[in-house]
Structure formats: C-alpha cells, structure tokens
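Exercise 3.2. Students should predict the tertiary structure of the chain below and write it as structure tokens, then compare their answer with the key that follows.

Predict this chain's 3D structure.
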Amino acid sequence: MSIKAINQIVPIILAGGTGSRLWPLSRKSFPKQFLNLLDDEFTMLQKTYKRIENLENICRPIVICNEEHRFIVGHQMRDIDVEPLSILLEPEGRNTAPAITVAALKALEIFKDTNVDPVLLILSSDHQIKNIHNFHLAIKNSIDTALKGNLVIFGVEPTFPSTGYGYIKSVNQLSYDKSFPNKVDYFTEKPNKETAELFVKDKQYSWNSGMFVFKANSILSEIKSFSPEIFNNCKYCLETSKKDLDFLRLEKKSFLKCDNVSIDISVFEKTKKAFVIPLSCGWDDVGSWESIWKISKKDKKGNFVKGKTFINNIENSYLHSEEKLLVGIGLENIIVIETKDAVLVANKNSSESIKKILSLMHEKGLKESQNHKLVFRPWGSFLSIEEGNNWQIKKIDVNPGASLSLQMHFHRSEHWVVVSGKAKVEIDHVKKIIGPNESVYIPLKAKHRLSNPTKKNLTLIEIQSGTYLGEDDIKRFEDKYGRENN
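Answer key:
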C-alpha cells in the first residue's frame, strides 16, 4: 500500500498499559485494551482505530506495545483489516514520553522520502468515546493549530470532581460547543477532593484526556529541548532496533535508559506552545470497575449482569460471571467478577484499591495477580485445566495452518489426546497424522512439534508430567514466529 504524502495524519496508538485496576479480567498477560469490555463488536484496541478510520487524510496507525503482546496486537489489527505502518515493541513500559518520542521518530523515518512532516494523533488504546461526531470535530479543529508548530491536547469537560484525573487550566474559559483551541495556562496533577470541586465549577479547567495532536518535528523539538536524554536514547534506540517478522523490536539497553515519565510532565508542563481543545464526547478512560459500571447498559435497578447469574434484591451493582453460577442476594453498590481462576468481590466505590491489593498478591507470589489460565500464542491458545506438584492438564487450541515450534523439554514428558480436528505430530523426525480419540506420547528430551495441517481448528488435551512444569522449560530449534522464548 502506498503512502500519500499530502497532509497525512498518523495515528499513534499507545497500547502498552497493564490495566491492573480491572483485575481479574485485565491482567498483565492480557490487559484491558485487548478485551471486549463493553459487549460490542470490537476490543478496546480495535475501537481506537475504528472510530477514526473515516477521518479525512487519516493514515494507517503506528502501534506501540509491550513485546509480550505483539501477537495479540498483530492478530487484532488483522481482524479489522488494518496493516499498521509499524508495530513498535517496548522491552518494558517507560510511560508516554519515551513511547511518543520513538513513535514520532519512526513516523519521520517512514515519510523521509516525501518531505512531509506528518501530523501525529496520539491515542490511548483503552478509552471509551460515545459521541464520535464531536470527537472528529475536535480533531479537525486541532489540525491548523498543530500545523503552525503548536502542541494540542484535548481537554475533556469535567462531569464530577474527580481526584483520579489531571486537570488543564486554559487562559480563557472553554466553550465545549465549539471545540476551538485555547492557550494552556498550566497543568495540575491529580488534586484532592476540595481542589477538584473548585476546578469543576471553573470553566477554565478541563480533564487531561491523554490525547494529543502535533507535528512530528514539533514534539521532537520540544522533547530535545526539555528532555534531551530521552530524545538521544530514543534516537539511538530506533537506529539500533531490529526487525522481527511484522514488528520492530526496540533496542532494550538504550530504551531503558529513558526516564519513566509522561509526555505531560516532560514537555507539556514546560512548553509555551501548548493549546487545549475542549472535548465533550462522552469520554471515559475505563480505568476502574466503577467506571465500567457507569458506562454499561443497566437494568431498572441500576445493575449490569453478565453470564450465568441469578440475583434478588440487588441494586446499583456490576456482576460478571465467566463460568460458574453466580448468585447475589440483598446487596447494593458491589462489584463481583468471576473468572476461571479468581473471584473479585468489592464495594463499587473502593474499586480503585484493586491496584494496591494486586501488589500485595504479587509480593506473595500469587501468579493469578498477573497471568490468566487462558494464554494466547501466535499459533492459538492453551488453557490450564488442572495441576498438581508434578503433573498438569491443558486444553490446547491450534489455529488452521498453524504450527508450534520444533522444541524439546528437559524436565517433563507429554501425552497428547486429540479432541477435534487433525494433528500433524513430529517426534524425533518421525511424522504422523492423528485424529479424534487418538493419542501420542512425547518422551522426556524428545525433539517434537505439533501442527494443524487442515483448515479447521485443532483441539487436544495435553497431560504433562515431570519434575518441573514451567513454561520456560523449553529449547527451540525452529520457530516460524521468530520467538526465542515462549
């Protein structure tokens, strides 16, 4: 696909968060931006691009994410027929300043032969926006300001005195009906309740949405001025990064030298070129279960109920069951989330405390704090069904035409039983096809590979036994997805 060189708007989609406040659905291994949290057609990441795809002069996106999630991003973009300009892989999250810097540098590299300084539209991958028309209008009104070399941030109309958002004070009062740019006076990080109550009453204040518009060279000039170490490290990082299939793996050592800091603090709080455009579009950052409840479709008693549930005398609550029967009686203002391996029960108003609880769980070594039982791989997925000290049972689903790596385990043997579909099995250079109700044994240290040679899904049960069952007990010999680890 060719890239037009006229007035290009390049979406930069930031998809590196962990979404810990929406545990247990959102976890480090599969965070909220890759989930369909609002029961519609697309995931949060997919909706981020879908809501802007019809804008005039919009380009294919640059997506930046954690390397652990690269195949999830690739798969979800393909599902909506989008081929990103680039998918940049962070070795570790360093907040928005390094991410935006390296994305801006990459955008200039992509357009280097066109003499175009692309306009960048910075979007978080986990926002909810209801009024797309108003959102598009705000973006269109930002372009002229950005083309003059200014930096634009979208300020959301406050609807309550939030202590969880940062605030922007504009030089003049904001008019949310017109979405015209206004010079920024200063920024305030998350205020206390008393201060937030004053801000909500003052028409010069808006919530910091974390969405921006600026030319690539404009933001890089300010980063170079106010955060030269971030600029230099990101420049070197991009120059020494390596192509990995459809991804660009950012060079780890130089990227991790960058300060872990937001673009707000590193640039916007210091620059004289910041403008705020007022945005009234039903925006929400979907940052907690309480916020999910607020934007969900509820019954007459204010309840959102999903899955196998039965309730009586429940009000203003959010109940979500993935697997088991969930019964609630005589409760109010609660959050109940049931998954395959964890259950959350919380007062709706205290859902912000989940992040602290997760830290304690992680300190105690509880793997449920970060990892799902269902794990996605580029070839499909596996679900841990049951496990003991020296054995484990998994359900493995292999996509049509996909293949696991040619590998060996040092501490475990495996037994595969096909449930549906057909499997091509290779064990120490011997290959055969097995179908439903057929099984095969893979001895300890045998070189083996599992493939799905058909156009239908393959499902099998894997029984592992051995002295160590960790996912890192693996030696790869060949891998079509270029993986060194799992």
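Discussion points: The two ends are 32 Å apart (CA to CA). The chain is about 20% helix and 35% strand.
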